[in-house]
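Lab notebook: predicted structure, single chain.

Context: the supervisor wants predicted structures on file for every construct in the current expression panel, including those that have not yet been purified. This is the next one on the list. No modifications to the sequence; it matches the entry in the shared construct table.
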Amino acid sequence: MEKVEDKQPEGRAEGKILRITKHGEKVLRQRCKTVPFEQITKLLPEILEDMWATMRAANGVGLAAPQIGLPLRLAVIDVKPGGKSKRWVLINPEIVEKSGAEESEEGCLSIPGLYAKLRRSSRVKVKALNEHGLPVEITGLGLFARALQHETDHLNGKLFVDRLPLLMRWKASRIIRQLKKNWT
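Prediction complete. Output recorded below exactly as produced.
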């Protein structure tokens, strides 16, 4: 984990803004390790605050631990159904049910500047632990379902570009090569 900034502007979540890993970094392609129950209350509170601060600073909807260099099955999502913010912490999430399908534009904080239409399930059910280590079952629709699938993919070593049709993947790889020239 590389620290980028210590101070938060007023009105921001506590926590440090961390460097977001980019396409091509090994941690994004690893299947992440299960978070042991003992670590949930000891180590995760600080990591979670850093993840929230980092995600908000990057204007993201979700962030997975490998995106800050940690190969742990941990993700945060902040969707705004009906304009109200709802923060979700997912520890060791597993998608247990999928249905429907919809195509929508998708991007990724680890591939800044690339967006592509991608078909995903329109409804998913996820089982996970929350930030207190309690089991939760979450059903997501629309953008929330997309975010649940996107972040779970990260925990399995997949990026959204891996799910694109072959021709689109080829085009995306060419665009990524150009975009990488501007990444810091």
